[in-house]
């Protein structure tokens, strides 16, 4: 129940709805019991068991409640029945209908208030989950399947709402129903009530045995559901490759294996859940059957209880069995919800390794330069960088070149603190970036990646990602600098045109120019270009390269390049090999060395 308590921690802002729900449930339980009790005078009138009372009864004390109520009802019925027995019956029926009406009004209000309570908790839980997801380091998602994270943030949260927080209704409502009904039953017959109390816990225990393994089964179902979502997400992202390689059948086979496992685990879970309903029904009928025999003897043989009283008592007993069965079944909801809550809270409890230090400094601007000192870094076991050192003065452009896997992109990941340095330091203006607030550090940098990461929104929203208050003029100006205005101005709605999922309505070159416009609008002093032109055709590359040259003016630029023709004007070209600096200098200096760089240039010019 620890997970349940933690989820309830989100309830504090919505306490008023919980209080209103409890009040409504108290009144629901009260009128529910009264509605069954009110059947007794109707039956007494029908069976002509009403005792004629002409003197209005007087309240004495609580122990005489039953006698007072019976006496008052009999007095009232006697007064009315003096003139018309049918009228007395109609009045009793109106009373019953009124009480059932009030019961259902407060039942509805209880659910109404619970809705605000429950959806409020779910909103805050989803908000916290999303906040945690966007703040977790990039390394977390390289180890986790995105589909599993999506499953936890969607289906598991829904499971918490449907099966976990629904228990809140049962915790208050059903016990109150049982308590009020038992109080009324004790007034009718202590002997019969004790008989009922012996059998209900036995049946509840039997039902609870069925759900013992439900939590582990629910965990397996939810985990496999994450696998289904993950494979679906990967399929949608790689649809062109799947079709291009005629891999539809292979992917279908893989997906069917996943859904078959999901079906098998779901069947196992549902079989156990479904078994509870008939078992509880049979046990309930068995209790009613034994009660009919035991109470029937008291009516027919012993004569210690009236027939109308016994029928009313049976109605109350049924009113107890229904919430008792609901409470027994609630254990399924708790176990299933517990499994979902555990998966959700695992994300919320994940420690974020890349956070601001307690005394982190805020830097207002970039003034001197960047220093990378003896940095060693490994994603897993094999180091990607080995004792790497580099000084990048303000206003200079530095290009990082080398074969794939030489550690170029890792430098960008470490500069932006997507990953933290394991050995050595990276400093900006003399401050170790681990001692600088993440926001102020990233405010100094604009990033353009090889894959143009765009969102399913308008051009204006994508370009003004770092500044939601940017004016249309500022967006258009950034587009012009990035050579993107030439195609944006011809779109149906200009900068307010939706570009589709991941910018699917645009070409590769157009998407990359929007990414550059986004960097332009941010106007950061440090520009990080991670192979920004490597995936483009010649014409698009020319336009993008021209845009980059405009952006790089008066900025400190770190250019990670695959195509060497794009970085020949860099102030310093660093040639990397297996995580270390093999050569560095200007284009002309490196050509004269006739070393590794010269060989790379020769290969690309062939």
TrEMBL record:
It holds the Pfam family ABC_membrane. It comes from the Bacteria. SUPFAM superfamilies: ABC transporter transmembrane region (SSF90123), P-loop containing nucleoside triphosphate hydrolases (SSF52540). Residues 72-336 form the ABC transmembrane type-1 domain. GO terms for molecular function: ABC-type oligopeptide transporter activity; ATP binding; ATP hydrolysis activity. The keyword Transport applies. It is found in: Cell membrane. Keywords: ATP-binding, Membrane, Nucleotide-binding, Transmembrane, Transmembrane helix, Transport. The chain crosses the membrane at residues 22-47, 88-114, 178-210, 274-294, 300-321. It is a multi-pass membrane protein. Residues 370-603 form the ABC transporter domain. This is Antibiotic ABC transporter ATP-binding protein. InterPro entries: AAA+_ATPase, ABC1_TM_dom, ABC1_TM_sf, ABC_transporter-like_ATP-bd, ABC_transporter-like_CS, P-loop_NTPase, Type_1_exporter. The keyword Nucleotidyltransferase does not apply. One of its GO terms (cellular component) is plasma membrane. It comes from Nonlabens arenilitoris.
């Amino acid at each position: 129940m620890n997970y349940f308590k933690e989820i309830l921690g989100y309830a504090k802002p919505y306490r008023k709805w919980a209080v209103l729900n409890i009040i409504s449930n108290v009144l629901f339980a009260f009128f529910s019991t009264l509605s069954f009790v009110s059947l007794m005078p109707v039956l007494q009138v029908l069976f002509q068991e009403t005792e004629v009372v002409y003197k209005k009864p007087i309240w004495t004390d609580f122990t005489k409640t039953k006698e007072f109520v019976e006496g008052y009802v009999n007095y009232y019925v006697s007064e009315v029945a003096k003139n018309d027995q049918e009228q007395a019956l109609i009045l009793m029926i109106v009373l019953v209908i009124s009480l059932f009406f009030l019961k259902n009004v407060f039942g509805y209000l209880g659910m109404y208030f619970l809705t605000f309570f429950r959806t409020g908790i779910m909103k805050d839980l989803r908000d916290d989950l999303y906040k945690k997801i966007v703040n977790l380091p990039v390394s977390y998602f390289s180890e986790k399947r995105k589909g599993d994270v999506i499953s936890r943030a969607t289906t598991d949260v829904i499971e918490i709402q449907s099966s976990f927080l629904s228990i809140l209704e049962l915790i208050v409502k059903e016990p109150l129903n049982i308590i009020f009904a038992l109080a009324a039953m004790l007034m009718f017959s202590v002997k019969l009530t004790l008989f009922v109390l012996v059998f209900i816990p036995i049946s509840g225990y039997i039902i609870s045995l069925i759900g013992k393994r439900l939590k582990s089964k629910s965990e397996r179902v939810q985990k496999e559901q994450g696998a289904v979502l993950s494979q679906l997400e990967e399929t949608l992202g790689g649809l062109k490759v799947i079709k291009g390689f005629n891999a539809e059948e292979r992917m279908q086979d893989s997906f069917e294996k996943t859904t078959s496992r999901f079906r098998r685990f779901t069947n196992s879970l549902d079989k156990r859940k479904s078994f509870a309903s008939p078992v509880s029904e049979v046990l309930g009928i068995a209790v009613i059957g034994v009660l009919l025999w035991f109470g029937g003897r008291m009516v027919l043989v012993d004569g210690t209880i009236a027939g109308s009283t016994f029928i009313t008592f049976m109605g109350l007993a049924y009113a107890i069995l229904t919430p008792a069965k609901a409470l027994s079944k609630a254990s399924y909801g708790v176990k299933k919800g517990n499994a979902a809550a555990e998966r959700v809270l695992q994300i919320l409890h994940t420690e974020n390794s890349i956070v601001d230090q307690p005394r982190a400094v805020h830097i207002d601007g970039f003034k001197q330069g960047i220093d990378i000192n003896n940095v060693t870094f490994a994603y897993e076991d094999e180091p990607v960088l080995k004792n790497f050192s580099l000084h990048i003065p303000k206003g200079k452009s530095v290009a990082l070149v080398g074969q794939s896997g030489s550690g170029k992109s890792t430098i960008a990941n470490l500069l932006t603190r997507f990953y933290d340095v394991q050995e050595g330091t990276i400093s900006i203006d003399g401050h170790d970036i681990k001692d600088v607030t993440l926001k102020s550090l990233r405010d100094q940098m604009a990033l353009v990646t090889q894959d143009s990461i765009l969102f399913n929104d308008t051009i204006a929203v994508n370009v003004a990602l770092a500044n939601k208050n940017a004016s249309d003029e500022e967006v258009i100006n950034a587009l012009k600098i990035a050579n993107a205005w030439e195609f944006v101005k011809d779109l149906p709605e200009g900068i307010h045109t939706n570009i589709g999922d991941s910018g699917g309505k645009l070409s590769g070159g157009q998407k990359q120019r929007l990414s550059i416009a986004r960097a332009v609008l941010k106007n950061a002093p440090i520009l990080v270009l991670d192979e920004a032109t490597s995936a483009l055709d010649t014409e698009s590359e020319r336009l993008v390269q021209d845009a980059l040259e405009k952006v790089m003016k008066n900025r400190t630029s770190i250019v990670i390049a695959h195509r060497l023709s794009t970085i020949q004007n860099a102030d310093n070209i660093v040639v990397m090999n297996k995580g270390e600096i093999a050569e560095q200098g200007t284009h002309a200096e490196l050509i004269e060395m006739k070393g590794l760089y010269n060989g790379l240039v020769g290969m690309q010019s062939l």
